[in-house]
Specification:
By secondary structure, this protein is α+β, with helices and mostly antiparallel strands. The protein is built from 5 helices and 9 strands, in the order βαβαβββαβββααβ.
Length: about 210
């Protein structure tokens, strides 16, 4: 498991204890459930941004995804989030959406990346301002660790701005590595918030 951009204060174990399976340094590999052709999967996604009109951008991205084979099952309300890091810009708006479709996780990843690009997203400054962040958090019980896609999203369990809206619409979905629900992750985070700070990543250029 790689968190190259995050330095933690406190033990990883302590943040997950009481409701979750402890994963120390390696992803546990669970076989994906066999899925019959034509059966649908649920995809939990996180939306965020701080450039432009976020409600309209979120709505446009979700409508675009619906036109490409995904059905919007639920969308959370918007929350306001303070930016993290000096380069992030102003206040963010965040939300979550639950999508369903007969697509594979990599197909959905590529679609959400296209939706980001269609919003005018520019990746000039790392952790900089952006029109749209659209992250794939969960895809049913799939566990993947590839260069292109990691599932579940490795940062979802300690981000309030991800778990809060996700709990609103998909609190009973289970994190396939930790063995607890999205709601349990959120409740645990409220009891013992994880403090973190951004640190330079020596393995990548700025």
């Amino acid at each position: 498991m790689t968190f190259a951009l995050i330095q933690f204060r406190g033990e990883f174990r302590a943040g997950l204890q009481a409701c979750c399976l402890y994963v120390e340094s390696e992803w546990l590999v669970f076989p994906a459930r066999n899925r019959e052709k034509g059966s649908n999967m649920l995809f939990l996604t996180a939306l965020g941004g701080n450039i432009g009109e976020q409600p309209e951008l979120f709505d446009a991205a979700l409508r675009w995804l619906e036109q490409r084979g995904l059905t919007l099952r639920a969308c959370s309300g918007l929350i306001r989030t303070a930016p993290v890091g000096s380069a992030a810009g102003g206040e963010f708006l965040n939300a979550a959406a639950l999508l369903e479709g007969d697509l594979e996780p990599l197909q959905v990843l590529r679609l959400v990346q296209q939706a980001e690009n269609g919003s005018g997203r520019e990746r000039i400054v790392r952790w900089g301002p952006r029109t749209l962040d659209l992250d794939l958090l969960l895809a049913d019980h799939h566990v993947l660790n590839t260069a292109e896609l990691i599932l579940p999203h490795p940062a979802m369990w300690y981000r309030d701005f991800v778990l809060r809206p996700a709990t609103e619409i998909a609190g009973e979905l289970v994190h396939p590595l930790f063995g607890c629900s999205v709601r349990q992750l959120f409740e645990r985070l409220q009891q013992r918030p994880l403090r973190l700070r951004l640190v330079p990543d020596a393995t990548r250029d700025a």
